[in-house]
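Task: encode each sequence below as C-alpha cells.

Item 1
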Amino acid sequence: MDACAAMLRAIEADVRATARRTGRARLAPPVRAALAAVRRAAFVPADQAAAAYANHPLPIGHGQTISQPFIVALMTDLLDLRATDRVLEVGTGSGYQAAVLARLAAHVWSIEVVPALAAQARAALAAEGVANVSLKIGDGALGWPDAAPFDRITVTAAAMTVPDALVAQLHAPGRMVIPVGEPGGAQDLRLIEKDAAGAVRSRAVLDVAFVPLVAGAAKEASA
C-alpha cells in the first residue's frame, strides 16, 4: 500500500472513532478525493519528507506545524463545501490545506502572518499548479475585508475567542470551523453556523491541540 493510501485509511479510522463527537461517520466523497489528489509531500520541509503522509502534525519551521491529516480532513468536511464557495483560510502555513480547499471551492483567500511561510506556501502552490488561491501576509484575526463576505471560513490556529471580524465577514448563511482555547491548554474545534437571517450558533466538535493564532505586527502585504 502506498503512503497516501495508508494515510487515507488512518484518516478514515479516526473519522469512525470520533463520529459520536463530530457527527461525521464518514468523509464526504469529494473531500476524500481531494485528500487523495493533493500531494502532501509537496508541502512539507525536505527533512520531513519521509513522514509526509504520517497521520500526525509535522513542524514546518517558525514555530508552526502542518496539521495532522485527520484534522485537515475533518475541518474540510465540516465546511460542507460547494463548488461555488468563496473560502477564507486563516493561517496558510505550508499551503497544504489551501490546496485541498482549492479542489473543492471556487476560490480560496488565505492569510499568513509569517512572511517566510507565505513565500514557501506560494511557491509550493504554484509548483503544484494551484491557481485559485490568493495569498497575503497579515493578521488573520482581522480577516480579509476587501474580499468579504465568505461562504466558508477555516482557521488553522487556536484563538482565545472567535474573532468578531471573522464572524462579521461570514456570509449569511455560512459556516466557519475554528479551534478555540488556551495556548498549550484546553482547546476545542468549533463549528460556527450563521443562518440566512444572520443569527449565529456555535457547537464544540472535538478536543484539539493547535498552535496559537498569532497577531500580525507587520503591515499587510501581498504574498
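Item 2
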Amino acid sequence: MKGAFISNLREQQASWTKVGSCGAPQQKGRLTVISCHVPPRVPLNRVSFQIDPNQVNFRRTVTLKDEQDAQISSGEITRVRVSRAGTLVINEELAVDTSGNHGNLTIDVDNGDNPPLAITAVQPLTVERRVYFDPQGKTTLKLYYGDDKLSAPVYDYARFFHRDDSPAPAQLDPGTHNPQYTARPDQRPWSERHTVMLWTAMLIAVLALAILALRGLRTQNTP
C-alpha cells in the first residue's frame, strides 16, 4: 500500500436565474431560428428549451451564435420515451450549456429531414450568483457599482462568514444613475490629453525650421 486518503464530497443542483428573453421561432429551410436578447455584460451559462410534451423521440443539433454570426457553442436537445417490458423509460436533455457574455444571440436548431419541433419557449439562463451581507437591522440599503478601477474590497465579515441554509433574500430595484457621481480626474499623460496643442507646436516648429533654412539658402546665394 502506497497511500490512502479520505474525502467528503457534497454536491447540489445548480440554481439558475433567467436573463433576457427569446422571440418566437422562425423557420428558414431546415433550420428553426430563434433570436434572443441578453443584456450586455451579463454572463450566459445555459439556454433551456420547452418542447410540447406530446413530441417525443427526437434529437436535434443546436448552434448558438453571437451578434457577429460567430459560433459560440453547440450541443443537442433530445427526448426519448420507450416502453420496455412494461416499464416506461423517459430520458430528455433540453438545455445547451455555454459560457461568456456575448449579448444578443441567435439559436439555430437543425431539423435535418425531420419536421420542426414544437418549441413553446426558449430561456437564456445564468448560474445564480449570491452576495451575502449583514444588514445590521436595516431594511433599505444601496448598492453602488460601475467603477472599473476599484479593487475588490476585503471585509472581516468574509473571514468569519458561515452560510445559512435559508438566508433572507433581498430584492434589487432597477438601477439608476447616482446624482452625486463625479468622474475620476483624467490620469492620462499630458501628451494624450492635449494632442491638438502638441501637433500645433510641432507644426510651428517645422515651419520655423523651414523659414530658417530658406533664409540660410538666400544668405549663401547673395554675392
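Check on item 2: The domain at 16-127 is CATH 2.60.120 (Jelly Rolls). The chain has three helices and eleven strands.
End of task.
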